[in-house]
From TrEMBL, chains A, B:
Segments forming domain Cation/H+ exchanger transmembrane: 33-491
Record NCBIfam families: b_cpa1
One annotated GO biological process: sodium ion import across plasma membrane
InterPro entries xrefs: Cation/H_exchanger_CPA1, Cation/H_exchanger_TM, NaH_exchanger, NHE-6/7/9
Subcellular location per the Swiss-Prot or TrEMBL entry: Cell membrane; Recycling endosome membrane
Protein name in UniProt: Sodium/hydrogen exchanger
Sequence similarity: Belongs to the monovalent cation:proton antiporter 1 (CPA1) transporter (TC 2.A.36) family.
Keywords attached to this entry: Antiport, Cell membrane, Endosome, Ion transport, Membrane, Sodium, Sodium transport, Transmembrane, Transmembrane helix, Transport
Signal sequence residues: none
Gene from which this protein is expressed: Slc9a9
TM annotation in the entry: 20-41, 53-70, 133-150, 162-185, 205-223, 278-301, 335-355, 375-394, 400-424, 436-455, 467-486
């Protein structure tokens, strides 16, 4: 019979009522400090420590205080229990103590070697919150915001390159890190630095996949403030957003991968099953996310055709929008798919269709709401990462492993960016310059996603070691590379507007107009693929009229015999509001579009349509992270809520 | 040795990753249903079931489904454990199961007679979430919103009556319910309906205090839509908001009350200690809430006097505002005070001082954010109340007790409203009419606060019976009285605007202008007490200039020798912006004000000042619950962000 110790913090009746308040207060305090610091930094144009780095630093200090200053009053009162009848850890446990039944809930597994640590410190235990909070509450707003604020025109212009970096690049990165780490682990076992743990190749690949998720937050915030070249911005933004999705699905697929015999041997069947899993999960999540967005678009579209106008109740509209988007995430998770991928594509689709149906008030409300949630969630995560270094109780620091991981991460990033850029440049008219490649290499920070993937599973010792290593790599990259972004940009001569010109000016507007003038120059042949053009035509002719008030009326795009149905489905505004179609902003070339569009159109597109769409782009573009600039106009046109009856054809 | 059973739900590794997603999805689904229903109801002008009633109904149905349709796969696998060494329920439990240590967290106490019920249904367990979530996350936004959206002018005009109802009325209600329930319990024990539980008089008082918290949500939402008489609205709003605070502190004080000997005997020392507790907690919470608001005001004020302008970063400003307000709640809770009271007064103070300092963008952002959070939190709570009837596992239904409680609640409400109205009418010029009194009697719904107070403590059997009873009374009052509000208003001939005139019109503006014209007519002598006038003078002369940009410059109100300090502390805008002082809207009478203000003012108030303030009232008034009406203009004046240098004296 094993001897166990009891590490018990006595249930304090007096403080029972205030449970949770102190922990939340600590987070609030950290966030307030962070905001005040950001304000100070912005004021002094101090860019060497970004807000995320600051949040992490404060978290770190707070963790230090909690760990070494607060008492751990429960360690002494330790005596414990053996439960012989239990065969596995149940999720709920009923225990009879002095004739009263208490219910206990499963929290986590604890490794033996760590039981003696700071186990008894109740404060530490309370500060380490459930990983499911990360995944269900903190991550969705960040990812959704990324999708919702995607600059469509630039994104689609560079779609080919972005997809290459995101899919192929992440796969390369994962495999390279996996291989290097496997070599390192073998060597460490050989020289006796690592004991006979079961550190399989799949574990190394798992680590590789989670470390392949790059974080857009820090670098892009700086890019945004400094008005860096829009193409570089879009490449990095698109890559890091999609790459998160790919890395998450990859991690999930690898954790399912289970070869039958020797775990180190290559099992073709299991491998293909994993690839199948990857594709299935990705496609399923994509479908789940998009369909929720389509439902939202349909609901918000319906209200204008009927006499009920949902847009008269901006609160309901915003609430529905918010809840349906979150449901996309939760449904995907509940169905065993990947919520992050679902919510990302939900965001993209919402911006593409639903956004056009919203009332002007709701457009602004949703934008500000998601911006705010994104801001809070981001800073909470970075504070928590700082805290976790001292409050998480099962760290395993292995300097050699950490060093190896650091090397692996850089080699992997290099073998992702440089070869792929070389290949892409073969097809691109507008080459990705050497300096851009260096900047992309430099921008491979690791952040929230890598951390969240690592903390999801810390049951076994290899996983704990991976978690500790991932955390330290996040610290290192955010502080060193995040802090070095501005000098690096100067050094590589990428920045467009010198520091100190006029930071109060609306950089977004400038960027938009500047990029608009570059529109034709930057057009690359490789990107405007036929598949994309077919999709665009289909979207413009059928989906947009069906789901939004923009685009040509369905009656003109559908065959004649569909006319009664088409008339029913077309919004009255569609006839008159073609001018307002701001979503043509991802058209590669206006000539290409009309060439593809005109043959089946019964009503020729009026000349002012295309000019109108170009003028509208700047207005309709969702600008991301208006954190410091807040320059958008809040003037609303309430007329948009009423169907324009006089413009009915 | 006692025999125990093990009710264990096997930890499913596959579903471990998705934990929490399904439960959140259920709530999302309920909320989406509720929103769609509200939309439908609003469209058909169907007012017999309010949204809160609808949310509760959906929750009830969902609870029914979860309880009786979902499988409870864990009941069969029951075998269990005795832990002889444990003397009390620890908050954390380490258990060694087949050589692996697992950590378990204390969840709750379970009464013996309930262990056999639906204990094993994991779904039910997951749906009953922690009461601390109510208190720390769901309630604060609702209460803060109430304080933030208080219509100051009407509130202060009726302050005396509101305070009487809130303090004296709640105390009366608590004692009456306590006495009646004590009689009922005695009688029930006598006829053998109730066993020898220890149902002391303090328990009855505890029940009385928690049942005295009336809920403003349902009735006021209907009042707001129907444009009911503003004085009645304000009386009910003020009463129900303050009454919640009083009831919470009262419940807390009673739960601390511990007479030394016989718990049924009256212990003068313990009683006075409880009264002292009540006053101390109330005053402390008030101070805590206001001081956080003052800090926020100072921070947001600072930015305009220095070259750093926080209002250029609306996101930071909004974030700081949100976090500091929430911190007021959490600090009060952590300090053993009452967070709800703190956050209420924090809201009132924020609206009074900080709101004036915010940039126009932030003004709207904060208003919309808190409105949205209030909307979501409210509907989550009402859904959850519906769910709780079937998912909460320790209900004790006692029909006699429930009947007694129902009677007690009505008798208590009657002995609160009618006698106090009679007394107040002795002093009021504008009497509270008979019909108003009936309507106030009728509007005594119980809601979120009563429920939250009851669910906070369900460890013992009397407390469980109280919880069940409270829940059923909430159902009854929300459905019957909430649904009956519209007919009752018609019957009592209180409604001002007949149904169906034009609900799309901006009722707020109409109400504001109408009430402005009634300003002089409604002035009552009893309300404009000297204490209030002194406070107003102090606030206007010293606090407002110190904390906001409104009011007279400090240099004119402070004595001459304070001039250097005063000049330092006065905002440059204060000299020029006196016209914009919209917060004089709670002045009882402009003549009274100037009479009180002029003697010490060095610069005479220009004539257009008072006219300006009257014109500004409609604009600056924070309108509550713009849920359906959304009629405010979103045009911002960016000029407010820049100090008007030309207007410097």
């Amino acid at each position: 019979m094993e001897k166990l110790k009891k590490y018990v913090s006595v249930k304090d009746e007096d403080h029972f009522y205030h449970q949770g308040a102190v922990e939340l207060l600590i987070f609030n305090f950290l966030l307030i400090l962070t905001i005040l610091t950001i304000w100070l930094f912005k004021n002094h144009r101090f860019r060497f420590l970004h807000e995320t780095g600051g949040a992490m630093l404060y978290g770190l200090l707070m963790g230090l205080i909690i760990r070494y200053v607060t008492k751990s009053p429960d360690v002494e009162s330790g005596t414990v229990y053996e439960c012989e009848k239990l065969k596995s850890g149940p999720s709920t446990l009923l225990i009879n103590i002095t004739n009263q039944v208490y219910e206990y809930q499963y929290k986590r597994e604890i490794s033996h070697h760590n039981v003696n640590g700071h186990q008894g410190n109740a404060m530490l235990q309370k500060m380490t919150f459930d990983p499911s909070i990360f995944f269900n509450i903190l991550l969705p707003p960040i990812i959704f915001h990324a999708g919702y604020s995607l600059k469509k025109r630039h994104f689609f212009r560079n779609l080919g390159s972005i997809l290459t970096y995101a899919f192929l690049g992440t796969a390369i990165s994962c495999i390279v890190i996996g291989l290097i780490m496997y070599g390192f682990v073998k060597a460490m076992v050989h020289i006796g630095q690592l004991k006979q743990w079961e550190f399989h190749f799949t574990d190394c690949l798992f680590f590789g996949s989670l470390m392949s998720a790059t974080d857009p937050v820090t670098v892009l915030a700086i890019f945004h403030e400094l008005n860096v070249d829009t193409d570089l911005y879009t490449l990095l933004f698109g890559e890091s957003v999609l790459n998160d999705a790919v890395a998450i699905v990859l991690t999930h697929s690898i954790s399912i991968y289970s070869p039958k015999e020797n775990p180190n041997a290559f099992d073709a069947a299991a491998f293909f099953q994993s690839v199948g899993n990857f594709l299935g999960i990705f496609a399923g999540s994509f479908a789940m996310g998009s369909s929720y967005a389509v439902v939202t678009a349909l609901i918000s579209f319906m209200h204008l055709t009927k006499f009920t106008k949902l847009c008269e109740f901006p609160m309901l509209e915003t609430g529905l929008f918010f809840l349906l988007s979150w449901s996309a995430f939760l449904s995907a998770e509940a169905a065993g798919l990947t919520g992050i991928v679902a919510v990302l594509f939900c965001g993209v689709t919402q911006a593409h269709y639903t956004y056009n149906n919203l009332s002007p008030d709701s457009k602004m409300r949703t934008k500000q709401l998601f911006e705010f949630m994104n801001f809070l969630a981001e800073n909470v995560i970075f504070c928590y990462m700082g805290l976790a270094l001292f409050t998480f109780q099962n760290h395993i620091f292995n300097p050699l492993f950490i060093f190896g991981a650091l090397v692996a991460v850089f080699v992997a990033r290099a073998s992702n960016i440089y070869p792929l850029s070389f290949l892409l440049n073969l097809g691109r008219k507008q080459k990705i310059s050497r300096n851009f490649q260096h900047m992309m290499m430099f921008s491979g920070l690791r952040g929230a996603i890598a951390f969240a993937l690592a903390i999801r599973d810390t049951d076994s010792q290899p996983k704990q070691m991976m978690f500790t290593t991932a955390l330290l790599i996040v610290f290192f990259t955010v502080w060193v590379f995040g802090g070095g972004t501005t000098p690096m940009l100067t050094w590589l001569q990428i920045r467009l507007v010198p520091v100190g010109v006029d930071p109060d000016e609306d950089l977004n507007a400038k960027a938009a107009s500047q990029s608009a003038s570059n529109l034709d120059k930057n057009t690359t042949k490789a990107e405007s693929a036929w598949l994309f053009r077919i999709w665009y035509g289909f979207d413009h002719k059928y989906l947009k009229p069906l789901l939004t008030h923009t685009g040509p009326p369905l009656t003109s795009t559908l065959p004649g015999w569909c006319n009664p149905v088409a008339r029913l489905l077309t919004s009255p505004r569609a006839y008159g509001d073609q001018l307002k179609d701001g979503d043509t902003d991802y058209i590669i070339n206006n000539d290409e579009l009309t060439e593809n569009y005109e043959p089946s159109a019964h009503i020729p597109v009026p000349a002012q349509d295309s000019t109108g769409s170009i003028q509208a782009t700047g207005k309709e573009d969702i600008q991301e992270g208006d954190l410091g600039l807040g320059g958008y106009k809040l003037q609303l046109q309430h007329t948009a809520c009423q169907p324009q009856k006089n413009s009915l054809a």
